[in-house]
Design goal:
two-stranded antiparallel ribbon, elongated, mainly alpha, 14 helices, 3 domains
Length: 345
């Protein structure tokens, strides 16, 4: 009798063990896709303030993949996650589990987004680049740049506020606001304008904004880094003598067409405060976002007495410089002849 009871007890233990094993297998089968599977690729999941789980799901699925995104959202639902107060861009790396991504979206730190820009002419173009990278739209950034009260906060006008937008690489959160971004850009601008640079500008009789404007003209005039200082000094000589800048790029800016290759007399009559053929002195603001190296080229421009320049007739990108009007006209004639020979209108 004792032997029979022992066998029954052993049988019950085997059954319990088997059931537990089955439960563990079932649980493991259910949980393994949430713990052991990984994101198929890197991606930046963007969550707007006030997003519902459905909106988060759409962002996940479009960025990382449908199956993976659904698993993450399932975990968010099971954990009772409220995403309406979460916002930002969250970096998901290839191989991250749904469980890890769920925790990232629930309480992780948003990722910064690298923003690099150079060779930008207009505020429209810059605002478009911002709108392509961040939560704000191009129009929202343009409204900020055209807000005279906001510009005054930085000691700038609507015309010269773009002087703050120094081409470089930066990092911002995806959901940064237009004013927050301009605050940051102003901080970087202030760091660039050290006491030494301000002293050099003052010695030239210029404000930092005027240096930026001249630098923007220099950047348009030449793509040759070794010529920028020379071109800068030419314009500084014109400013010092009261001579009109008569810079062709300002006419292109006034017309709104930088593709123009040949400036005509009629073009120089274009009515605009930026047209330096019609208006004396320095334009009210930059005609492009000047490079930091060009700002330094203006501040450290080598001395010379040239006041005329003309593109070389060999189309090398360099210029002929002179202090003589007669020599300048000869240089201009050779260049015009070369344009005619190439059929440039």
């Amino acid at each position: 009798m004792t032997m029979k009871i022992g066998n029954n007890e052993l049988t019950r233990k085997k059954v319990v063990a088997l059931v537990l094993a089955l439960i563990i297998c079932v649980v493991a089968a259910i949980l393994s896709p949430f713990i052991l599977t990984g994101a198929p690729e890197d991606g930046l999941v963007k969550v707007r303030r006030g997003s519902t789980l459905e909106m988060v799901s759409d962002s996940l699925q479009s960025t990382i993949g449908t199956a993976f995104g659904r698993r993450v959202v399932t975990l968010l639902r099971l954990t009772g996650s409220d995403m309406t107060e979460r916002h930002g861009a969250f970096q998901v790396n290839k191989g991250d589990s749904p469980f890890r991504v769920m925790r990232l979206l629930r309480s992780g730190q948003p990722s910064g987004i690298k923003f690099t820009f150079n060779n930008v002419r207009t505020r429209d173009e810059w605002a478009a680049r911002v709108g392509d990278r961040f939560m704000m739209s191009k129009d929202e950034m343009l409204r900020a740049l055209n807000d005279s009260a906001l510009c005054a906060k930085y000691g700038k006008t609507v015309d010269n506020v773009t002087a703050m937008l120094l081409p470089d690489s930066y990092e911002f959160y995806w959901d940064i606001t237009p004013e927050q971004m301009l605050d940051r850009m102003h901080d970087y601008y202030d760091k660039f304008w050290t006491g030494d640079r301000k002293a050099k500008a003052q010695a030239l009789g210029l404000t930092p904004e005027q240096v930026s404007t001249i630098a923007s003209i220099v950047d348009e005039e030449t793509g040759k880094a070794d010529e920028r200082g020379k071109v800068a000094r030419l314009y500084l000589n014109r400013v010092a003598t009261g001579m009109p800048l008569q810079a062709d790029p300002t006419v292109k800016f006034a017309i709104g067409d930088f593709s123009i290759r040949r400036i005509t007399y009629e073009m120089t009559r274009t009515s605009s405060p930026y047209n330096t053929y019609r208006n004396p002195g320095i334009p009210p603001g930059p005609i492009r976002l000047p490079e930091k190296s060009t700002l330094d080229a203006v501040l450290n421009a080598p001395q010379h007495d040239y006041i005329y320049m003309c593109a070389k007739e060999d189309f090398s990108g360099y210029h002929n410089f002179t202090a003589s009007y007669a020599e300048h006209m000869a240089n201009a004639h050779r260049y015009q002849t070369a344009l005619n020979a190439r059929g440039v209108k």
